[in-house]
Amino acid sequence: MKRIALFLLTNIAVVAVLGITASLLGVNRFLTANGLNLGALLGFAFIMGFGGAIISLLISKPVAKWSSGVHVIEQPRNADEAWIVDTVRKFADKAGIGMPEVGIYEGEPNAFATGAFKNSALVAVSTGLLQGMTREEVEAVIGHEVAHIANGDMVTMTLIQGVMNTFVVFLSRVIGYAVDSFLRKGDSESSGPGIGYYVTTIVMDILLGFVAAMIVAWFSRQREFRADAGAAQLMGRKQPMVNALARLGGMVPGELPKSMQAMGITGGIGKLFSSHPPIEERIAALQNSH
After folding, report:
1. Active-site residue numbers?
2. How confident is the model over 90-138, as pLDDT tens digits?
3. Which residues are annotated as a binding site?
4. pTM score of the predicted model
């Protein structure tokens, strides 16, 4: 319930801020009596598309801590926490990034990395992962998450999401205008957009949104292959990451909030919309890499 409330409040806040910004800049006035102002529409689409993605990136770390109940390790309370912090520090130094915050959260096997900047990110692992894997396998998973940070995957995925969002907003409104103009052909008395515009825009937002989600998911899957290879490079050999993936294949992975799924070690079901490739494909790609 807490995650649902947070999701709703975050989206309401984002929409409100973007709506006010668009109104103040006047970029939402893309439908005029003389037709469609493509320049104004593109500006509106850009603000709506990138605005939400960038805001989500900037608040990703605090949202991750709150929604997953992450305990940030300020001072290790036991040998296991000290080992996790030392492992993250070792890989961060090797990858040439700043030391991320390190956290643990209660849950089924999973881990994630998040944050807007390479040098102030967060790496968190679940209690289920720590209990269900050997130390070498956990080390490989941590290497995978550090590789995500070093590769700049959070920013890259945000930019891709922003581009897709912009295209969805722009194209759906262009198509909506075209359909509305066709339906109202010869009606010289009416001005402004009609019902055809609004209905078409909503339908196209949904349909194009599905296409955009598939494209973003494809990019996310490529990043997973790269992060697996990055973990092997950080460890100096492939086998620990292969073993960790094989172990994950036999576990029930923990669910992550939607905003962090792309950065987790495991993903959802449904190949076209999945943020992660099948475990078998990841193992094969890792074994065949040089």
Report:
1. 145
2. 999 999 999 999 999 998 889 999 998 999 999 999 999 999 999 999 9
3. 144, 148, 224
4. 0.80
Handedness of CA 123, 137, 253, 53 (dihedral sign): positive
Predicted confidence (pLDDT) per residue in 23-40, tens digit: 666 656 677 666 787 778
Q: Are 59 and 114 in contact (CB under 8 A)?
A: no
Q: Indicate the annotated binding residues for Zn(2+).
A: 144, 148, 224
Count of Cβ atoms closer than 10 Å to residue 4 Cβ: 9
Q: Alpha-carbon distance 43 to 21, whole Å?
A: 11
Write out the DSSP string of 177-230. HHHHHHHTTT--S--S--HHHHHHHHHHHHHHHHHHHHHHHHHHHHHHHHHHHH
For the chain, which residues make up each domain, given as ranges? 1-255+267-288
What whole-number distance in Å separates Cα of residue 199 and Cα of residue 126? 44
Helix (H) or strand (E) holding 262: none
- What's the gap between Cα 256 and its chain centre? 11
